Amino acid sequence: MQPEIPQYAIETRDLSIYYGPFEAVKNVDLKIEKQKITAIIGPSGCGKSTLLRAFNRMNDFVPTSRVDGEILMHGTNLYSKDIDPVEVRRKIGMVFQKPNPFPKSIYDNIAWGARINGFKGNMDELVEQSLRNAALWEEVKDKLKKSAYELSGGQQQRLCIARTIAIQPDIILMDEPASALDPISTLRIEELMQELKKNYTIIIVTHNMQQAARVSDYTAMMMLYEDTRSGTVIEFDDTKKIFTRPSDKRTEDYVTGRFG
Amino acid sequence: MARFSYPEKQDLQKFVAARYRKAWIWQLIFMATLLVAIVSLAALLLNVVDGAFGYAAFEYKKDPAQFSDKPIEELNREELLAVLQENLSTGAYKKLDNESPMEKRSQIELYYLVQERLLQVDTKATYSLFDSLFNRHEIETEVGEKYPEARLEFRYWLTPAFVTSPMSSRAEFAGVRTAVLGSLWLVGIAILFALPVGVGAAIYLQEYARKNFLNRLIQTNINNLAGVPSIVYGMLGLAIFVRAWEAFTSGAMFGITDTNGRTIMSAGLTMGILVLPLVIINAQEAIKAVPDSIRQAAFGVGATRWQTIWSHVLPNALPGILTGSILAMSRAVGETAPLIIVGASTFISVDPSGPFSKFTALPIQIYQWTARAQPEFHNIAAAAIIVLLILLLTLNASAILLRNRFQRRY
Questions:
Q1: What residues of chain B score a pLDDT lower than 70?
Q2: What is the pLDDT of residue A6?
Q3: CB within 8 Å: B408 and A103
Q4: Which pLDDT value is given to residue B1?
Q5: Distance from CA of B302 to the nearest CA of A (A)
Q6: CA-to-CA distance for B350 and B368, rounded, in angstroms?
Q7: Partner residue opposite A100 with nearest CB, options B211, B296, B316
Q8: Residues of B at the A interface, defined by Cβ within 8 angstroms
Q9: How far, CA to CA in Å, does B136 sit from each of A201, B54, B124, B127, B133?
């Protein structure tokens, strides 16, 4: 039998996520394409971030959280017993909602992650390369030793992206990466995402429908079950299709602003 | 009549005025409480200062003129040294020289030596600073009537020599060096024990422990331990460090045979246990103040928990941990009760030579001096209190400086 060549970057099978007895996300089946941008949209509290954080096992830090079903990355279940979450996070990087650089120099922000992951090579080159790829190099090349906290919010967020791509993950998760930024910084992040998708698979959670429509190739629409208050993906398709002729009435109401 | 209404026009004016009156009364009450606090503190300070300076009537067994043509207090260092060399026996001089080289002693130290060894001074009466300042005339008449032989001198009980002199059975020449060194040794051992143990416990509780019943119980107990009366820790120290661990705390394990378990080591460890809950709680607060977003960022780039703690949590919590530890140290410096139980020496004139020597500490010294009948001991007790207060203020000030210097804004 031919070895199965995994077609998708991430595939979830009947995925449910629990916080204690509460089922926050229910029965999600997603197939996320490689080197594409997939957006997850939906009203507040429908489990978008929970789903995103399940992909790199950040939910492990919530003591009561539990996962049912499978999340496959290149065909391996990320939640099987012999998988270490630290390895998962090396392969699946994350950019957070609020820019959170380390209280260290710009240089060390990038070098630290590389160092702890056993990077061998020229650190200066890696730092420059990562900052260039994050479209930040020109702005910070003369102050690499300065504290990252001296940068503006948008620059900090791009630094966080540089920090993430420095450890060469396969997938980058972005949890509303531009929601704390002004429109110009937001635009720069969006342009950057288009560059990054040449090399990385990107999954982005966003509240901003225009943003999802602008940047993503695929869109997953999430919604709450009225009775159990659990979130689930009600529609997953080409972004164009989701925003022009969605098959679900609730999606149509949401993307046209008649709901939520 | 309307079902809902508010005061309007004149009623409104009256209503607002009444509210201001009420606020004003509360403000007065708060100011009064502040005033009470300030007055009590000022009274405390004045009381101490009042005792530490003032006139004292000295009687000399020998006539000063016998040793020098000039009054003794006007002699300079070299002249005092010459007087001592001439009039002390060679053996006595050598002994003093061995304790600390005579050539290096200050003018005031030599002056005290002349008073002690040659003039053989005897304090007949001492007066407080306020009496000395405002009732000088009455003091002079009183001394003239009661002690016709005595000389009246304005005495600074707190002098550099007081800080650098060892303990003495004569209040006029006693100093707090032994006690200050004892206190520093105690605090040093206490913090060497409490800092690593306390920070370790805090890291475990904050970063590793799950929120289960057992850990909540431990946390509650640590919080309660911080409020346990210090004398209880003294009992613990006596039972464990002085008695059960005598082989270790007396230094017998290391070949030291001349002491029992009542050593600096016992007292230091007791103090360490005493401040441990404070260190843990302060370190926990400092660790808690490191924002979670930084931990998430570290985990997000594939760090293990320990890498996250070592590279991000601890460096950012360090100023807070140190500040808390210094405050814990200043608590230890002022503690008396556990030291009495663990067995501080009542009279000891040699400096502590290491962790296994007998010791005394500043609060113990103060306590003993105030319990003496002779009034001049009360004066040096006041002076020792000022030394203790300065030590405490220095510690607290360094804690504040540290906090301001390294305070981070995220």
A1: 1, 407-410
A2: 65
A3: yes
A4: 61
A5: 5
A6: 17
A7: B296
A8: 210-211, 291, 293-294, 296-304, 307, 311-312, 316, 408-410
A9: 91, 10, 17, 10, 6
For A55, the token pair is: 């992909």
Nearest neighbour of B302 by CB, restricted to A90, A101, A149: A90
Q: What is the pLDDT of residue B203?
A: 96
Share of chain A above pLDDT 90, in %: 71
* Residue B241: φ, ψ to 5°: -75, -45
What residues are paired with A25 via a beta bridge? Answer: A17, A231
Q: Which of B211, B302, B409 sits opposite A89 (nearest CB)?
A: B302
Q: What is the pLDDT of residue A202?
A: 95
In contact, A242 and A260? CB cutoff 8 Å: no
In the predicted model, what is the mean pLDDT of residues A105-116? 95
A87 → chain B, closest CA residue: B302
* DSSP states along B293-355: HHHHHHHHTT--HHHHIIIIIHHHHHHHHHHHHHHHHHHHHH--HHHHHHT--SS--SPP-ST
Measured distance CA(A35)–CA(A172) in Å, rounded: 10
What pLDDT score was predicted for residue B276? 95
Is A93 touching B (CB cutoff 8 A)? yes
Specify the range with the lowest mean pLDDT, choosing from A2-6, A71-75, B6-10, B321-325: A2-6
Contacts with A93 from chain B: Cβ below 8 Å: 300-301
**Chains A–B, number of C-beta pairs less than 8 Å apart:** 63
> Which residue has 């007081």 as its token pair?
B162
The domain B177-406: what is its CATH number? Answer: 1.10.3720.10
Are A97 and A176 spatial neighbours (Cβ–Cβ below 8 Å)? Answer: yes
The structure tokens listed for B406 are 């390294």
Higher pLDDT, A75 or A61: A61
Using the Cβ of A102 and the Cβ atoms of chain B, whether some distance falls under 8 Å is answered with yes
- Interface check for A103 against chain B (CB to CB < 8 A): the answer is yes
Q: Judge whether A87 is closer than 8 Å to chain B, CB to CB.
A: yes
Q: Do A116 and B311 touch (CB under 8 A)?
A: yes
- Put simply, the chain A residues between 56 and 85 with a CB less than 8 A from any chain B CB are 56, 58, 61, 63
Give yes or no for a contact between B320 and B289, defined as CB atoms under 8 angstroms apart.
yes
Given a cut of 70, whether residue A17 has pLDDT beyond it is yes
The whole-number pLDDT of residue B104 equals 78
Selected residue with higher pLDDT from B195 and A3:
B195
Domain positions in chain B: 1-36, 53-155, 177-406
Please report the pLDDT score of residue B410 as a whole number: 55
Q: In what order do the strands lie in the sheet with B151-156?
A: B121-126, B53-60, B151-156
Residue A107: name the closest of A169, A76, A47, A150 by CA: A150
pLDDT of residue B287: 96
- A87 in Cβ contact with A60 (< 8 Å): no
